[in-house]
Design goal:
By secondary structure, the protein is α/β, with parallel strands linked by helices. It has one domain: Luciferase-like domain (TIM Barrel), CATH 3.20.20. Helix content is 34%, strand content 14%. It is built from eight helices and twelve strands. The protein starts with a strand and ends with a strand.
């Protein structure tokens, strides 16, 4: 079994240079302790009730960590795919792959925050299809020459991103939104997308902190309903909230 750890890339409102420098110190220490991977999160707007901070640029932070490490893998957990265009994103991935000596691992998700989507001029309802198109385009852009793509949201002709990568650097990670129970990270749709896009044995699944507890509660509730209890007797499970400091508060 291998363990990874998240880099502290929080972009606090009063972030100081010395605090930002801890990303580098943390990366060195994690590698020295034998961790398998460094992970970074992504959200650029605060979500009251869920988290009270945002995160620094995930790919830039991994490039920073790559400069002070030699072995530990560098992973996005998760990069919100619809926030990017596949062509410049392919260039960023290709660059980070080579700067890190092939240690970069791409984990992607469709996102969930409606405010972030609206800020970028997109509809939340497009996130799944956009994610599928971006993954399909990235697979070709990173491993093929003279790529043309004609999707619903992304179109380009005769693009080559040199040098090509020996393989697509995917972890197979996926996660879903926390906004509604039926679209929770443990939803069948997110599982299917992860399985479909990453058929390799190393395909992975990364869910927010509430996911495992939510799944267990759902199983218990289903058993209680089969035993004759009514749905109104079941106590809804709320996701963990974050304080204004960004730390998890137990419900």
């Amino acid at each position: 079994m291998r363990f990874g750890v998240y880099l502290p890339t929080f972009a606090w409102r009063d972030l100081r240079f010395d605090q930002a420098a801890r990303v580098k110190e943390f990366a060195r220490k994690a590698e020295a302790l034998g961790f398998d991977a460094l992970w970074v999160a992504e959200h650029f707007l605060e979500a009251p009730g869920l988290y009270g901070t945002v995160w620094m640029s995930p790919l830039l932070c991994l490039a920073h960590a790559a400069s002070v490490t030699t072995r530990i893998r560098l992973a996005t957990g998760l990069l919100i795919a619809p926030y990017y265009h596949p062509v410049p994103l392919a260039r960023e991935i290709q660059t980070l792959w080579h700067l890190s000596g092939g240690r970069f691992v791409l984990g992607v998700g469709p996102g969930w925050d409606q405010h972030e989507f609206e800020t970028l001029g997109m509809k939340l309802s497009e996130r799944g299809r956009r994610t599928d198109e971006i993954i399909a385009a990235l697979r070709r852009l990173l491993t093929e020459r003279d790529v043309s793509f004609d999707g619903r949201y992304y179109r380009f002709q005769h693009v080559t991103i040199e040098p090509l990568l020996p393989r697509f650097p995917s972890s197979g990670s996926a996660a879903g939104p926390r906004s509604r129970p039926r679209s929770h990270p443990t939803s069948r749709t997110s599982f299917r997308r992860c399985s479909r896009e990453s058929p390799r044995p190393t395909a992975g699944w990364r869910a927010p902190p509430a996911a495992s507890k939510w799944s267990g509660r759902r199983a218990r509730d289903s058993r209680a309903l089969r035993q004759g209890r009514t749905r109104s007797e079941l106590t809804p499970l709320r996701p963990p909230e974050l304080s204004s400091s960004g730390r998890h508060d137990r419900p």
